[in-house]
Amino acid sequence: MEISGKIAQANGRLKSGRVGVRIEQIGEKLYLQATLPPRPTSRKTKPHQQRISLGVGAHPAGVKLAENEARIVGALLDAGKFEWTPYLKGKFKPAQSVGEWVERFEAAHRSKMAAVTWRSDYQEVFNSLPIDRPLTVELLQKAIEATPENTRTRRRWCLTLGRLAKFAGLECDFKLLQGSYSASRVDPRELPTDEQIVEWFGKIQNPAWRWVYGAIATYGLRNHEAFFLDAAALEQGGWMVRVTEGKTGSHDVWPCYPEWVEQFDLRRKLLPDVNGADHAAYGQRVTQYFSRISLPFTALDLRHCWARRTLEFGLPVELAARQMGHSVEVHTNTYHRWLSADVHERAFRSLMLRSDRPLPPKN
User: Fold this and answer.
1) Cα–Cα 20 to 30 A to 104, which of 60, 199, 221, 313?
2) Which of 116, 48, 38 is nearest to 83 (CA)?
3) Coil, strand or helix: which one is 66?
4) Cα 190 to Cα 338: distance, rounded to the nearest angstrom
């Protein structure tokens, strides 16, 4: 295929990906064309169509580099982070080291995500890489393989480093390295019984932490959500609490069991005197306290138990998912495989054997 055909294919991919940058050949060199901010020496004040000289030849390897750079420029323009300095005559040098690629990735993506997401899902992973080494598929693969197999950590490393590789134009697929970890693999038989949950509530001596424990167990909260609750309705005799902010924003939740509201004295809200820079920090405070008292299960286990009860009680999946602050798809994939024959039998008896249900026509 002639080089013009390869350029046309690359521009087609850029267009379908909604990248507002295209590749152009002038003589034997390749350029990028886009609506760009004025150059530092320009008298113009508004963005206008301009070319970026890449200094690379019009050959297959050059087209690949140009397409990759077009995606970077497009991402930087979208994020309002584009600067002319790296592209001025004689200064352009494609990023090569891990540190350079991570810096470009951050410039293009960080403004679009919460600080806690960047720190926990990206920065922590990137910090494990040698910043001065060239970014290669082999280097990323070794970093992934250094994490424990079939774990949430391994899955996170695969996803994050896969995104970095794609951003850098590396051809790789880390799906096979992810292993078998999945949130849906939680075994309900490993969760505490409701009797154990009540027993451990009574063992917690600190009244504020006892309230946090009771709220998480009764409302199926994420660990940090206990610190971001509007409990006004509950304090006035109602049942609902509102998560005001957190991993998935605001949502309302009702108790399951309602009896635990009184049993755990939840109408009198009492929080520990702790603070944190973000949601993750508050969640960590809960994890640390539960570990300090040698609780044999986690806050996430209490949340899973709430979900299990909603299945057994027949709460519609749409309502349960919304109250847990996640999608119906996530809810069904994670929890609906827990439905045992006993649960189906109880649902059958309550719905199909009741005297007032609709009856079929007779012959």
Assistant:
1) 60
2) 38
3) helix
4) 12
Position 10 confidence tier, pLDDT thresholds 50, 70, 90? very high
Angle (CA) 45-79-64 rounded to 5° is: 100
Give every CB contact of residue 251 below 8 A, 6+ residues apart in sequence: 242, 243, 322, 323, 325
Reported as a pLDDT band with limits 50, 70 and 90, residue 167 is confident
Enclosing H/E stretch for 32: strand 29-36
Question: Per the confidence metrics, is the pTM higher than 0.70?
Answer: no
Q: How far apart are CA 233 and CA 292, in angstroms?
A: 32
Looking at the DSSP bridge assignments, the partners of residue 34 are 21, 50
Architecture of domain 189-349: Orthogonal Bundle (1.10)
36 close to 77: Cβ distance less than 8 angstroms:
yes
For residue 181, cis peptide bond before it (omega within 30 degrees of 0): no
Give me the pLDDT at residue 166, please: 85
Q: Are 215 and 228 in contact (CB under 8 A)?
A: no
103-125 CB burial, b ≥16 within 10 A, e <16: ebbbbbbbeeeeebebeeebeeb
Q: Which residues contact 279 (CB under 8 A, 6 or more apart)?
A: 116, 224, 228, 245, 246, 247
Name 251's bridge partners.
Answer: 243
Dihedral over alpha carbons 282, 287, 293, 294 (to 10 degrees): 180
Provide φ and ψ at 151, rounded to 5°.
-125, 165
How many Å apart are CA 141 and CA 119, to the nearest integer? 21
Q: Which regions of 100-233 does DSSP assign to beta strands (E)?
A: 229-230
The DSSP call for residue 172 is -
User: 52: helix, coil or strand?
Assistant: strand
Residue 69 and residue 90: Cα distance in Å, rounded? 16
Residues 264 and 342: their CA atoms lie apart, in Å, by 29
Phi and psi based region of residue 246 (left: phi greater than 0; alpha: psi -120 to 50; beta: remaining)? left
Angle ∠(180,321,357) on CA atoms, nearest 5: 115
**What is the reported pLDDT for 271?**
94
Alpha carbons 52 and 46: distance in angstroms, whole number: 17
Strand arrangement, sheet containing 229-230 = 229-230, 241-243, 251-253
